[in-house]
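Example for tutorial group B:
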């Protein structure tokens, strides 16, 4: 069975492996679920700063520097929601643009590979912070922590490391 390939990239100096490994699909699924949740949850918290629409309690914020759910909503919407969508696009197409090509050149890996690790790590750190400041644990927290760990773990598998690696040919000399 031949691996599926991604479209050609036309960014000067950047060429990533085009074969899509099987592990890309569960990673995209995890990021997609997180992105949808970030868009929905973030929008809900931005439009209802009390958190009541999501059954969130303002008392959860007592040990935080914020007094309502606007800042957490913005974070969810931008980082998990919008960045998650951009990250999925980058992982699928292998394309780079603007300053992201600099990351590719300097690290030898595609920006979206680094982004997947960063997004999973930020999710785990966010949940760890929540567990520290919110007095009660809700079922979603361990599930999201596991999701973040799975994202990092999938990105670090050899097939994904190879997928994120730049081609050995140097065209940016």
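The residue assignment follows.
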């Amino acid at each position: 069975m031949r691996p599926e390939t991604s479209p050609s990239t036309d960014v000067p100096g950047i060429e990533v492996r085009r074969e899509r490994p099987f592990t890309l699909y569960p990673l995209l699924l995890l990021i997609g679920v997180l992105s949808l949740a970030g868009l929905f949850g973030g929008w809900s918290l931005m439009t209802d700063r009390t958190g009541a629409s999501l059954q969130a309690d303002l008392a959860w914020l007592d040990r935080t520097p914020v007094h309502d759910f606007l800042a957490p909503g913005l974070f969810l919407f931008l980082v998990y929601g919008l960045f998650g969508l951009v990250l999925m696009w980058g992982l699928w197409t292998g394309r780079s643009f603007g300053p992201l090509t600099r990351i590719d050149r300097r690290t030898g890996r595609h920006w979206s590979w680094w982004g997947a690790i960063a997004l999973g790590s930020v999710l785990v750190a966010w949940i760890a912070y929540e567990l520290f400041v919110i007095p009660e644990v809700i079922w979603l927290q361990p599930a999201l922590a596991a999701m973040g760990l799975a994202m990092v773990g999938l990105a670090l598998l050899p097939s994904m490391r190879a997928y994120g690696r730049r081609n050995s040919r140097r065209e940016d000399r």
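The chain has one domain: 24-164. Compare this with the pattern of hydrophobic and polar residues in the output above.
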